[in-house]
Amino acid sequence: MKKLSIIALLMTVIGMLLWQPQLAFADELTGHSHEKGLRYLISKNALVKDAKGSYRPDANVTRGEFASYLTKAMNLEATSDIVFKDVPDTYVHAKDIKLAASAGIITGYGDGSFKPNAAVSRQHMAVMLERAIDYLNIPKGTSTITFKDNAAIIKDYRQAVAIGAQLEIIKGANGYFMPEKNATIGQASSFIVRLMQLAGDPNDGNSNSGNTNGGNSNSGNTNGGNTSGGNTNGGNTNGGNSNGGDTNTGSSKYAIKEISNGTLVGNQGFSTFEAAEKAVTKNTQVVVQSDKIVKMSSGYVVTNNYVALKSETINDSLAVAGNTEMEYLSSDATQVKVRLAGQVGYLKHADVTLIPFSMSKGRSYYENVNGEIKHTLYDYNTNKYSSSYVFGKAPSFMKQNEKYYSWNGIYFSNGNGSSKGDAYNYYQFLPARAQTQYTAQELDAYIMNKLAEVESTGVSSYKDATKKSKLIGLGKTLKDVEAKSQINAMLILSLAQHESAYGMSNQAQDLNNLFGLYVTDTNPLNKKFDSIADNINELVEKFLQPNYITPGGSPGRNFANGAVVGSKALGFNVKYASDPYWGAKIAGHYYRAEKALGFKDAKNPYTIGITTTTGLNVRTGAATSFNPLFTYARSSMPVIITSSATNGWYEVLSDKLYTGTAFVSKDYVQVINTVK
Predict the structure, then answer these.
(1) What is the Cα–Cα distance from 273 to 447, expressed in whole angstroms?
(2) Where are the alpha helices (DSSP H) in 519-622?
(3) CA pair distance 404, 394, nearest whole angstrom
(4) Is 293 helix (H, G, I), strand (E, B) or coil?
(5) 3-class SS at 490?
(6) Would you list the domain boundaries of the chain?
(7) Which of 211, 240, 370, 393 could be a cystine partner for 217, CB 3.0 to 4.6 Å?
(8) 249-359 with 607-675: one CATH topology?
(9) CA–CA dist 350, 136 (Å, integer)
(10) Alpha helix locations (H) across 343-488?
(11) What is the average per-residue pLDDT within 567-593?
């Protein structure tokens, strides 16, 4: 009887087990160190199995895959006409790459490629994640976190790594970050799920009953953590009880404060931006959110870090460096309307700082110093004047001992409106097709004298410059390029001096790269050139000639904004460099060379004109019956006029490589007086 009872009990237990719901079988992700992130990407339809049925969690993630993961996790939708030459529409991640690029989260290389199948290093990924942090309006502050191998992180990327580490999105191991190591799909998934947790994604696998990260949210209350998507930062929002007119900003998202003696006073709180904006009654009042100004009557805007500004003026994205001053036009709850050298666009509040004129502690300014124009730059991170440079003769209207300001490097004002004027610096707005009058021997002599000068400063990076610089003996190469490609030899030398620290930079010394080719703000490609001559030819044949000088540029590349170094208003500087003063600094090198060599170019100058209309045809003859050689899509394009008007037409140097004569209607070109 006892045996039968035991058997019956066993049969009952076995029966119960057989009737239990089937448990899910373990798969390759079960127990993986990045399982949570991997399953998150799967839930977003971002990660799928390959032909062998594997998610490849330990394989290196590619640039295309990572862009796709971000796009799907962030639900990006807005797209633009950004095109990468190596990402055809048939590419598996083409749509996601375009969406991520349109959001300013990823960028391509200088040659117009994206390299979607290249592996992503951990430091490159940190930069892309920082862009995503800004896009999602996740508060980040400034971090001082460092790793034991911090020196191995590219200098410009250290901030992104530090911010990612501070927010615990990216992590190292045993105090090391391993910046150059390629990231795996698993690591990428963990980075992204942590990012989306900060953004409050309810599907991030860590959200319970609507609670967001950075603090527990109960019944709509957010306590002392960083949240986004409408939640307040660093304050408590209780059940949505904030209402217009609250005087306690602890229960309000926005507040009105008044500028008094350079500081903000007052604390009238409002639940919405619109309510606060409507309540502003004086020019001295501003709207703030968590003590950050988000609306003001007048002032200027400074970028907190590198940003991509989508210019509505030319329908193109412009790279803009951190610490860049821009005109403030207006703002709403989510974005700020700005104007950079005439280029109007929008930036997110997280990307910029709004500074009312009455609260300014210092601004970059121009001045006349002994007849030369000097530009002094202000560093908003340290609130100190940081550096200065001279780039030409001062215009006649500039008085000594007086500060002048300019948004575009062309129009200057002293701030009170009593003294102002236009000034086109000759070297900054001299078209590239000009020829310098200096010989190869004169260029070589100047190079050696300049190297001796920088060597004598005692700066360690210039040690033995007269022996080691990659600029030594370049005179003949530069003049040969000028003759063959019709690009000013002195212009190329000036660009090389600036980009390579007089031929002494690591890129120049180790890679024969004088111009930072294939080195962007987010993705440096350490391509080594066989010789300096090869490097110069690559600059000319793959960058300047097809994209920056020839009107229209190569297919899909909208870089031709005038064949001058220029500024963010026009010229190479619009697209070549994020530094808004890059063109002026290149001009400064040309000017100093001229000053050392006797101003041969300035004493026999070219006549420069500026086009005044869009869609202007440059023709092969002085009549509309002649075929167009090319068309200027934009207005305000600089041209070199080689003869006085004949029958209403100017003879000009063609921006397109062309050995014949070119003509443009006199009615649509204004001759300018350059400062030289």
Answers:
(1) 58
(2) 532-538, 582-597, 600-603
(3) 11
(4) strand
(5) helix
(6) 35-198, 249-359, 365-422, 440-603, 607-675
(7) 211
(8) yes
(9) 9
(10) 440-455, 465-468, 475-485
(11) 95
Residue 335: phi and psi, rounded to 5, are -150, 165
Query: What is d(CA 69, CA 125) in angstroms, rounded to the nearest whole number?
Result: 12
**185-198 and 122-135 helices, crossing angle to 10°:** 20
- 421 vs 396: CA distance, rounded Å: 9
Q: What is the DSSP-derived secondary structure letter of residue 389?
A: E
Question: Distances from the Cα of 194 to the Cαs of 129, 188, 205, 206, 207, in angstroms?
Answer: 11, 10, 10, 10, 12
Phi, psi of 379 (to 5 degrees): -100, 115
636 three-class SS: coil
Helices and strands, number each (H, E), in the chain: 16, 25
CA dist 398 and 242 (Å) reads 53
The three-class DSSP label of residue 65 is: helix
Q: Which of 69-73, 435-439, 536-540, 558-562 has the lowest mean pLDDT?
A: 558-562
* Structure confidence at residue 524 (pLDDT): 56
3-state secondary structure of 116: coil
Tell how strand 300-303 and strand 352-355 pair up: antiparallel
Nearest to 569 by CA among 637, 665, 473, 507: 637
Dihedral (Cα; 347, 139, 165, 213), 10-degree rounding: -130
Q: Indicate if the pLDDT at residue 213 is higher than 60.
A: no
Q: Which has the closest alpha carbon to 105: 154, 70, 142, 155? A: 70
Residue type, 171: K
The string of DSSP codes covering 304-340 is SS-EEEEETTTTEEEEE-TT-EEEEEEE-SSEEEEEE
SS (H, E, C) 401-415: CCCEECCCCCEEECC
Mapping DSSP to helix (H, G, I), strand (E, B) and coil, where does residue 524 land?
strand
Candidate from 87-96, 205-214, 295-304, 494-503 with smallest mean pLDDT: 205-214
* Residue 139 φ then ψ, to 5°: -60, 140
223 pLDDT more than 70: no
- Rounded Cα gap, residues 639 and 653, in angstroms: 7
* Rounded CA separation 581/365 (Å): 12
238 has pLDDT over 50 = no
For the stretch 18-72, pLDDT in tens is 334 333 446 788 889 899 999 999 999 999 988 888 999 999 999 999 999 999 9
CA torsion, ordered 436, 438, 444, 448, to nearest 10 deg: -90
pTM here is 0.68
Centroid of chain to Cα 77: 21
DSSP 206-228: ---TT--SSS--BTTB--SS---
CA–CA separation, 264 and 280 (whole Å): 14
pLDDT band at 519 (very low <50, low <70, confident <90, very high): low
The answer to whether domain 440-603 has CATH 3.40.50.1110 is no
What is the pairing mode between strands 424-425 and 674-675?
parallel
Per CATH, is 249-359 categorized as 2.60.40.640? Answer: no
DSSP 59: S
DSSP 372: E
Distance in angstroms (rounded) separating the CA atoms of residues 196 and 136 = 9
Contact (Cβ atoms closer than 8 angstroms) between residue 585 and residue 496: no
